[in-house]
Every structure is written in structure tokens, then in C-alpha cells.
Inverse folding.
């Protein structure tokens, strides 16, 4: 049965609640402040990135559009394979690091567009691309409208990487959150990004997508525990008076890496949702 739940309107309600809590800060400003830390966390190759890129089955003559490209975790390795990459992101800070990473890789076959996906105009800002991707970047208010635009921008396939169940808060981080803020983490953001909500919206749009659930490991590297503390304080807006609790938590959960430094591993499930634009794709 269809129509019992309007999944897109449900998600709008969840997003509205989260935006009311963060009304003091515009999203692009938030990501500008986090750009440096985010770039440190995502620089270089990782098994997760390699698997995602391999899943796209790209040809050298393809063009790829990366929606919410950030600092180029996917755009940079993809640009080494295909003819052209277009990276769209609302954060100028994120795109500055993307351009640095492209230059470091000796790559020039890309275009960076600083715009919210909602404000991008097909046929004006961009032309259709062979493949459209979005990795953990669908924070738009009207997700159905955003997905419809992604579908219209793709000539061959669309790929979306998103969470399956918990993502930002695993059991360990829930413990930290409760100690620092004296309350459990709010769950709305996690449900907002879970693949089932996204899949249901696509189904209501008449897009019957493929879904692959995978084990996923997100690794963050630090040169020292002091560096880890500073980066976590900034990213999670942890009050200075709670730094001892954060330091204790990180000392317990950071692992020594063979090559030097420390790593924080977050193991979870992720989903790849994708659909072809034609049977020949």
C-alpha cells in the first residue's frame, strides 16, 4: 500500500527539528569551520574509499557529478579514472581543500561549484553527467526534490552512499555524549540519514533502486592525543571544562598505529543505493 506514510514530509519534520536546534549557524559556515579537520580525517586512500570507487564501474570517457563533494575524498580518486569531474558543495572552505588535493594529485580535469544542491540549475550551472554520486551528503530539506534533480542530472547511473542504522554515534560515543552533556544523543539525525527512509522516498517516486549493505570502517588518524583532543573539541563543540572527560575517553579508545601516531576506528554498516537510467546502463 502506498500513501499511508508520506516519507518525504516525515523527513522534513525531522530535519526541521534539527535546524531549529542549530538556528544560530548557517550550514555552509558550519562546514567552513570543520573543513580543516574534515580534510585531515579523509586525506589519502582508505579501503572504504577504494571499495566505493570500484563500485561505480567507471569508464575513462565518463563524466561524474559529485553532490556534496566536501574536500574530495571521492572526487580526487575518481578524477584519476574519468574524463571530467564536477564537484558541488555549499562550503567554500571544503572546496578550497578539494582544489588543493586535486593540485597535489596533478589533476585539472575537474570543475568546482560552490552552491547548495537546491540552488544548482540544470542546463545553466551544470549539464547532465554520465554518473551522479552523493556520499553522506544528502542534508537537503526537501529530499525528494533533491533526488529528482540528481536523477535528471544522470545519463547512466546514480549512486548514493548513506548510513545503515547507527553512523555518527556508536555505543562508545554514546557513552562519551552522556558523560559530557548529561543526556543521551538525539536520534533524529541518525534516522534522517538511514537508508530505509531514503529508499522509501525513492520508491514513492517510482524509482526502484538496488541496495547493497556493507560492513564499513571509518578511520581517523592523529599524530598525538593532544591533536585528537583539539580536533574532537572543535568538531563536537565540547566545552573546555569537559576536556578531561574527553581526554580520558580518547586515551581508552585510540589505538597505536604501526607506522606511528594514533587511530580511532568506528565500525558500522553502510548502504549503497543505486539505480540505472536505462537497461543498457
Amino acid at each position: 500500500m502506498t500513501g499511508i506514510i508520506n516519507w518525504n514530509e516525515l523527513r522534513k519534520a525531522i530535519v526541521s527539528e534539527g535546524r531549529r536546534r542549530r538556528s544560530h549557524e548557517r550550514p555552509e559556515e558550519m562546514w567552513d569551520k570543520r573543513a580543516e579537520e574534515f580534510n585531515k580525517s579523509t586525506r589519502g586512500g582508505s579501503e572504504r574509499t577504494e571499495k566505493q570507487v570500484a563500485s561505480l564501474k567507471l569508464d575513462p570517457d565518463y563524466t561524474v557529478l559529485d553532490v556534496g563533494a566536501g574536500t574530495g575524498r571521492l572526487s580526487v580518486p575518481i578524477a584519476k579514472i574519468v574524463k571530467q569531474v564536477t564537484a558541488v558543495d555549499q562550503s567554500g572552505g571544503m572546496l578550497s581543500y578539494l582544489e588543493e588535493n586535486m593540485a597535489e594529485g596533478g589533476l585539472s580535469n575537474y570543475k568546482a561549484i560552490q552552491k547548495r544542491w537546491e540552488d544548482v540549475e540544470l542546463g545553466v550551472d551544470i549539464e547532465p553527467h554520465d554518473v551522479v554520486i552523493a556520499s553522506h551528503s544528502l542534508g537537503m530539506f526537501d529530499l525528494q526534490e533533491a533526488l529528482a534533480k540528481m536523477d535528471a542530472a544522470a545519463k547512466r547511473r546514480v549512486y548514493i552512499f548513506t548510513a545503515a542504522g547507527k553512523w555518527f554515534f556508536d555505543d562508545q560515543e554514546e557513552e562519551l555524549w552522556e558523560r559530557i552533556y548529561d543526556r543521551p544523543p538525539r536520534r533524529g539525525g541518525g534516522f534522517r540519514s538511514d537508508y530505509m527512509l531514503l529508499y522509501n522516498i525513492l520508491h514513492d517516486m517510482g524509482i526502484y533502486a538496488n541496495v547493497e549493505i556493507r560492513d564499513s570502517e571509518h578511520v581517523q588518524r592523529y599524530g598525538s592525543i593532544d591533536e585528537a583532543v583539539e580536533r574532537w573539541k572543535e568538531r563536537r563543540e565540547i566545552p573546555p571544562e569537559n576536556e578531561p572527560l574527553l581526554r580520558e575517553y580518547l586515551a581508552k579508545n585510540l589505538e597505536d598505529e604501526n607506522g606511528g601516531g594514533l587511530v580511532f576506528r568506528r565500525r558500522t554498516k553502510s548502504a549503497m543505493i543505486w539505480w540505472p537510467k536505462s537497461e543498457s546502463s
About this structure: The longest helix spans residues 27-42. The chain has a mean pLDDT of 86.
